[in-house]
Structures are given as C-alpha cells and as structure tokens.
Amino acid sequence: MNKEKKLLNTLKGKKYDIPPVWMMRQAGRYLPQYRKVREKFDFMTMCKTPEVATEVTLQPVDEFNMDGAILFSDILVVPEAMGMKLEFVEGKGPVFESPIRTREDIEKLSTDGIEEKLSYVFEALKLIKMSLNEDKTLIGFAGAPITLAAYMVEGASSRNYIYLKSLMYNDTRSFNLMMDKLVNALEIYYKNQVKSGAEVLMLFDTFAGIFSPFDYERYIFPFVKKLVEKMKKNTPETPVIYFPKGGANFYNLLKQLKIDGVSVDWTISLIDADKKLDSKFTLQGNLDPVILFADYQIIERETKRVLSEGRQLEKGHIFNLGHGILPKTPVDSVKKMLEVIRAGNIG
Fold it and tell me: What does the domain layout of the chain look like in residue ranges?
C-alpha cells in the first residue's frame, strides 16, 4: 500500500497528476452513517465526546478514501471556552445567549484555562491520529478572528452584521481588544492541536468577504497576519491553509502571510486566483458545492475543468469544494466526482 501523504506533500511543494482530495464539512448530514450517530446525540455532545467525534471524522475517510481527515468539531467551541454560552437551535443554527455589545462584555472574555476547557478536542485528535492510515493527513482547524467575532457580536448568523460593523467603526479600541483576545485564544488552540497530532491547520474565514477591501485591510488583516505569525513561530513545520471566503478582492494582501495554501471559493477561477497570488501558494478548491446536485454529465465536466486548472498551477493543487458540502448532497454525486478525479483523464 502507498504510504505517501499526498495532501501534506502537496503543501510542501510536491505536485501530482491526480491531486489529493478532501471536502470541507465532509463529516456531515449528507452521509447516512452520520445521521445514524446524530439520532443518538445532539451536535455539541458529538463535538465534546472524543470517541464520537473520532467515529464521525473517520466516516468520510473510510467511505471515500479521502486524503485528508478533518477533525469533527465547530469553530464556536473557542468563544464558548472564553466564557460565552453557546447553544445550537434546531433550524436556526448556533446562538449565543448574551452577545457581545459593550467593552465590558469584551473585557470578560478570558483565555484562562482554555487548554483544559478544550481538552476534548485534543483528545479527539489523538484518537483520530491513532486510527488513521499512514497515507492520510490529519487536519486541525479553527475560525479566523473576525469570523468568530461575527457570531459573538451578532449572537447568531446575520444578514447585515450591523452590530459587528458598528463596533468596528465606532469603538475600534474595544473591537481591537476583542480581536487580540481571539488571536491569543487561537494561538493556544492551534498549538495544542499540533501537539495532539494535527499535521495541517485550516484557518476558516467564512465572513472575510462581508467587508470592503479597504476595511479588510485596515481592521481585519492585521489580526490574520498576527495569528499566522504566532502559528508559524510555534509550529513552523506545520502547513497552514487560509480560506477567506469571498475574499478574491484582497488576495494581493495574502502575499504578506506566512501561509502555505489558500483555499479558493468558486467565484474566481484557480488560474485567476494564482495570478493574483503570484503563484506563491498551493491552491485548494474550488468546485461549487451545488454542482453536486447537477446531473452526472455536468459533475464530470466541472470536475474536469477544476482539475485542468489545478494542473496549470505552479505550486500544486488540492481538490476540494469552494465551501462546505451541503447537507442534502447525494452521496452518489460525491462518488462520481471522486471517480472523475481519480481516473486522471481530464481530456
């Protein structure tokens, strides 16, 4: 059996004709075996029970022979560990009982004991690592500071992010304090993920694209840069992939980051993304998740298009979706996509 870690090697500069593949949110509701486990536990219990998180993490790896296993967890475990009360409401998603609205709220956020409070995550990573085949790469992850802040200040998902942006514009000092606290918490979190077996780190910035390029550069980017610098200082050998969803307008800034990969959404071609990034990074992506609801002919056509672009990249390509796989995605469509990738014929 081939023991080569294709995903890890791609981030370290090796190129393959058939790229490594995994999917964001690959452990999820589209899988019947996931739904079976979900019937027994609520979402947070699944995240906080290392044996269950391990089982669910491994499901798509076993089902599809994925090159990457991404820890089953949620980005919001970090603000919860900083003292915010989090619950998942059916049909509504994550909700914080008392959103951050004042400087006093921000001052209450604490990184004390965060390592211990998140020990269930590190325990799960250790269990997953022990269970994974040698050719698989274990991926740890967290949400970027502004993406966490968006939930923490709005209290739930939002349409306009009025509370978040008002805080950012009108009380920048308090906003910066919150962002600094998040950077410190994330530094501890990532360092312990690597210590527990994570071989690659994903930094999810789902809400990067809600800002103008000017606001992203002024208010957001300095904290991304600071966090990445801390990550690279603590664990210099561990590759980092940054995913700024909707962020193609400020890709020029990413060239300043000490990252190894950029995850690209489906709103820009891999070729154009590579040009904007001066071919500095391995690119990951970027099939539109909704393509997997199309007929097989379209899935094949679009998968081959992404593969063709990926082959032209200077630094290599990791095949992924442009965002997380959707809950009602047909499993057979995933199998079709993988069949096309692994056939190696982009014709």
Answer: 6-343
As to burial, measured by CB atoms within 10 angstroms (0-12 exposed, 13-18 middle, 19+ buried), residue 21 is: buried
Nearest to 125 by CA among 54, 187, 204: 54
Rounded Cα gap, residues 142 and 2, in angstroms: 30
Candidates 243, 240, 148; CA nearest to 186 is 148
For 207-252, what is each residue's pLDDT tens digit?
999 999 999 999 999 999 999 999 999 999 999 999 999 999 999 9
Q: Do 180 and 106 contact (CB within 8 A), yes or no? A: no
Taking the model in full, what pTM does it have? 0.97
**CA–CA gap between residue 331 and residue 64 (Å, rounded):** 10
How far apart (Å, rounded) are the C-alpha atoms in residues 213 and 183? 21
Q: What are phi and psi of 185, to 5 degrees?
A: -65, -45
> To which residue do tokens 């079709």 refer?
336
Q: Which CATH architecture has domain 6-343?
A: Alpha-Beta Barrel (3.20)
Question: Dmax over Cα atoms in the chain, in whole Å?
Answer: 60
The whole-angstrom separation of Cα 291 and Cα 293 is 5
Which active-site residues does the annotation give? 25, 29, 38, 74, 151
> 168: closest CA among 244, 225, 219, 99?
219
* Closest C-alpha among 239, 248, 191 to residue 216: 248
Q: Read off the pLDDT of residues 2-37 as tens digits, 9 standing for 90 and up.
A: 689 999 999 999 999 999 999 999 999 999 999 999
Instruction: Give the up-direction half-sphere exposure of residue 115: CA atoms within 13 A in the CB hemisphere.
Output: 8
Annotated binding site for substrate: 25-29, 74, 151, 206, 323
What is the torsional sign of CA 42, 89, 320, 281?
A: negative
Q: Which parts are annotated binding residues?
A: 25-29, 74, 151, 206, 323
pLDDT digits (tens, 9 = 90+) for 171-214: 999 999 999 999 999 999 999 999 999 999 999 999 999 999 99
Tokens of 292: 């997997």
Q: Give me Rg for the CA atoms of the chain.
A: 19
Q: Give the sheet arrangement for strand 261-263, strand by strand.
A: 68-70, 137-143, 200-205, 240-244, 261-263, 282-287, 317-321
